[in-house]
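User: Hello, beginner here. Can you help me understand these amino acid letters and fold codes? It all follows right here:
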Amino acid sequence: MYQLEDYIKADLRKEKVRSNFFLTRIWACLWIDPIGDRRYIVKYILALRHTEYCIDRISSVRNPFSKVYYQIKSFYWLSRLRKLSYITQFQIPPFTVGKGLVIWHWGPIIINPNARIGENCTLNPMVVIGHKNPGEGAPKIGNNVFIGAGAKIIGNIHIGNNVIIGQNVVITNDIPDNTVVVSQKPRIL
């Protein structure tokens, strides 16, 4: 059964909890804080988790009235997720990412619905996780993985636990556990 509270606590553990949100927003607007709009990223992650919870409850509840309630609730959260997806440019389907998802910045993040990402994953902008050809398998990514900006993970591959993937790396082969993958800087002759 999907534990909504556990997922939300794990996802928001790195977010700064501010005691006076109103004053913080005024401060961010006055000084034009470049990451002052992190609230949309947090809202997106919360909408994603609520959507997953409602879809899980629809399949597990036996009472028809409860089923209708969760269907209406899932429609609300799906529409909210879609709206926030247009704002943040994230395309993360439900049930693809485990607990502890961290997204630091805005920018396109595209994940195939068949991909599976483990717990405590950090995603940066311009990440694409998908398949090579339709009908082919999608990547399976382990726990505690950092994926740098611009990384492309393509094909039916497996990436192990505790892996760091650098910026602008294209991965088409399996990566073992406890590995750092970076692209080599091209030499200019």
Observations:
- The first helix runs from residue 4 to 11.
- The CA atoms of residues 125 and 187 lie 26 Å apart.
- Helices lie at 4-11, 21-31, 38-60, 64-88.
- The mean pLDDT is 86.
